Amino acid sequence: MKKTYDREYEISGWTTGVKGKAALALMIICRSGDKTFPVTPAMELEERNALAKKMKTVESNGKTHFENHWLGRPLIVYFDDYSKDNLPQRARTKMEIKSLLGKKKKAKQIKYFSNINFADRIIFWDEIILMIFF
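The chain above was modelled as a monomer; its predicted structure follows.
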């Protein structure tokens, strides 16, 4: 059985697929040192498409949803191996973010919940982010 690694990486951007069935589907860009690499969200294409649209939505403070809720946050990334440049290969994510809730408090893991219907997931996710980070 092949080993799978997981590690936290800072979210530095996002993009969408350009060809095939994943065209317009969300891809997260993470940073490792001065290099970046793409991470595929482990979500249905319909969910990735909807989240990609939401990322560019401008919110009441004039910043995008991405800037307000994702940029700079530590994302848990799962991958199979490291490249020759020491970057994760075949990187994927369950859209899990860890947040330190104070210096001495234990890290709390937040997951993108798949056990509720899709229409409510994005709203629920935003509410969790707001409760934890703000």
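Helices lie at 45-55, 65-69, 118-133.
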